[in-house]
Task: structure prediction
Amino acid sequence: MKFNLTDVQALIRARRSVRPEQFKSRKVHRDQIEALIEAANWAPTHGQTEPWRFKVFTGPALESLQLKLAEAYRRNSTELAYLQSKYDRIRDRHHCASAAILVYMKRQVSGKIPEVEEILAVGCAVQNMSLLATTYGMSLFWSSGSAVYEEQFAEEIGISKPDRILGVLYPGYPEGEWPEGKRQFWMTKVDWFAE
Result:
């Protein structure tokens, strides 16, 4: 099997994270979400544990999810750090996105594989989803933070320890031109050793 390396590199460089508030009103369809999750399923996984799991929210369920996230944000914010505008943005995100995909790690029962390796496998699964989304002209925004990681929020949506929520993904079509990417030169991030 042979692939065009130039095309793969261009796809990787084209991937973008765009906030749902910057999405077009164009709906993301169920078959596209299913394709994203199938792409996730082909991520590398140590010990073939396949720890990635997803809960997909649309319609009234998406509105309910956003309210739960907003309340978790309120519970986890100090009085000084709390912003009503952020609460409102989280609560109202269902107006911007047609779906949310909650991603979590299903912990291996035996615990043989270190948890960090399971988390990394889920991250690889999300990258697969992001790359496929790019081919559709979509962004896959990965939202995280203290509200997403809160134990009470996890319990409210049926996830308990040792499983762990790793974020909420919002697929959508960016408004306007495809955003430009910015990265520091990769060689500034590498130390080479020959001996």
